[in-house]
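In keeping with the milestone schedule agreed at the kick-off meeting, the structural modelling team has produced records for the first pair of proteins. Each record is given below as a sequence line and a structure-token line. The laboratory manager (R.T.) confirmed that both were archived under the project's standard naming scheme.
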Amino acid sequence: MRNWEIVLIIVNFGLLYGVLIRRQKAGSTIRSLWPLFLGYTMVAGQIIIEGMSWRMIPAYFTIVLLTVYFYMGRNKVMRRKWSSVATQFVLFTIFLIISLIPPLVFPVFSLPEPTGDYSVGTVDYHWVDKNRTETSGDDSSAKRELMVKIWYPASAETEKPFNYYLDDVPEVRDTLAKQFNLPPFTMNHFDFVQTHSITDSVLSQVQEPYPVLLFSHGFGVHRNQNIFQVEELASHGYIVVSIEHTYYAGVTTFPDGRTVELIEKDQDISTAVMDAIMPIWTADASFVLDQLEILNKQDNRFSGKLDLERVGMFGHSFGGANAYQMLMKDKRVIAAIDMDGGLFGEPLPENGVGKPFFLMTADSTRNGETVNKLLDSYSDQELIQLMGMNKEALQQYMDEIEARFLKSVVGGGLSIVIPNAGHHSFTDSSLYSPLLLTKNENPMYNHQVINEFTLAFFNQHLKSADESILTQLGQKYPEVDFTVNQ
């Protein structure tokens, strides 16, 4: 909850309880109406300072209750019945609980403040790959188009206001609501969530060129899904390039206003189907690297500022698998992190990828007992409707995913397993609502762990930092089981 939302609820419900206990009514003088003036002032003040939100509608309604209570029966002389007072007290308490639920379940969440020395700037690009035909759309002559967002170290002299979370892609709000089976208005409070980055701010000249990191989102999500992580990396001197995989993101909006939604996917999520999709994503990433080479020569902001000899990649879910495939296939990527992503695409090398690789997973992903309990909670028919597989086929699928996890880190790959974490703990969405959290999950703690290990890994392999830092983090967080795999 925002500060003035908290103050509004405390003050206005305090007024309600106060007038009830004192049985205060409107008197003959304007002075007797001070609780009403204060109540209306609190509502107006919160709206003016922080902005009106649907989440606060029950709390705004306190001024109506105050007004009704002040004027209803004020000229009647009635004996005070404590049973009536107790009933009203209970009703006010129920109303208080109702008023607290929306702002607590749909909070205006705060992103962690970046810890690096740099301010953070952002800019969006729209790139068209003229060498690839778009195979997912209706137009057989269309070329593959991508939206890309870049976060970069910015000059501290910039005094523009911080961006809002979905300020540049408002269509994502409706998509998120659809994914959670909620009405679109329930995501309007995202308009109040501020980031720590500024659009089109001046690139810092403190260091040049800067190492580059590619980010690949999860299936059906969007390029803004990991702001908690990309801002942290940019603040420490990385240029972070987030690719939005058109038709595989929840929604993509192009500069001319065209909107492309997530392609309707087959219910069959077998490894063979997912393997077949991966070449599209790796081709996207390779194309973006090609465009960055052009940007490094021709763009006023980034010309000569991108160190394309020091390129890493990280991703979540299917995007994490993309990062591994790029590490394996594209010599320009020299280190990669997969965050809770099954290893889809071309077969994994028997002796390891031969480059620095870090696998981060949630304990709920790797815990066979948890998976079995989840499968047992559905009938075969329900699983076929949801996943396109019966229980036996889905168990085989999960076993194959685990086998690929183990194979990916052979030959010196690093791994951690984060306790009390779920698949979406590696994204901003764990901040969206407490309803989305895994049991006992602390999203701020999980984000801190992810950021510290991510930064240490890329610092070691792209900035030649002391390799002992990762070992020290393993000792700092023994619960994550940091492992150098043989």
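The second protein of the pair:
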Amino acid sequence: MRPPIATEPFEDLLRDLAPRVLSALARRHGQFDACADAVQEAMLAATVQWPTDGIPDRPRAWLTTVATRTLVDHWRSDSARRRREETAALDPTRQPPDPGPDPDPDPDDTLVLLFLCCHPALSAPSQLALTLRAVGGLTTAQIAAAFLVPEDTMARRISRAKQLIRDTGVRFELPTSRDRTNRLAVVLHVLYLIFNEGYTATSGPALTRVDLTAEAIRLTRLLHRLLPSETEVAGLLALMLLTDARRGTRTDHDGSLVPLADQRRDLWDQAAITAGQTLLTRTLGTGPVGQYQVQAAIAALHDEAPTAEDTDWPQILALYDLLTHIAPGPVVTLSRAVALAMVHGPTAGLTALGTLDADDRLTHNHRLEAVRAHLLEQAGDTDAAHASYLSAAQMTASLPEQRYLIRRAARLHPPA
């Protein structure tokens, strides 16, 4: 037994062990939902006991044993499972088996778990929640806080997701090779959404949620370790590193948003930039080029520019043109309009934005109006820019973004 600890350095250890313990139980016993609940109870027990008793010498075996006992106790108390108690494996006179020596981590188990949590039968919010719960090891309360919803709402969402997994009869195994590519795309999209929500929170008092960006990067690192030859996994990890490198300069001392052009580039995380660039350089050209590799290349060009004026906007525009062919969508068109304006002037960018006015996917998104306001200001139409800034401010639930947009509007029309 390791010595007791006063703080909580074991949280990272628990998050790392949680998917491995859950994978082992689900593979051995089936019933993903019951196994997931048992692992959560084991983790809660660890947070209570380990600070005073110390971290066990074999923490994974400790968690496995506690989770197994919880699982067996659940089966024993459930009248619908009386017949299970009559089997040798669940003989009520027997204690749960000692898990034996810590087994070598089976990378496929964690990979299976990621694919299971991102099952296409689940809605996107359910995929996010279940991934953070089962693979990330976060509690329901932590996930609810991250997405600013009541804990009972998140608990129901997770419960429905586990129920659907059970009802679909999905086996705890990797999908067939034919389905794996599509399922991997879903996994990457879920990790991408987790990172984006952390990097620019959709609502609340803070611009960023470091817990979510860190968790997204951790899980993507794990996926890259499990699938080192998948170029889009490497591309997504590079994108996260290159983007997160700027996080510390995106707000000033009072939490106000600082746009990219005004950030202190000397304060960007150079280690993260170097890691992202190295990963991207090693990946490009080794397989099909996908959307995350292209986005990572764009992020790298921003990070490499010593000043905003030195940004290679023509190359960025060319990459957005490529991204439009690979993964067309309104967000890509929106970002491309900014690059177009930087290369050919604000009028060209505004013309490109006009193609999005009828797109229902951006009807309630403040970013279209925010970009429009910025380009109108560049074009000298201050009245229209003022109106667009205020319109964008009314559409966002992020307090830092609201304050920034209102300040931009006030600069154009100072109050009397």
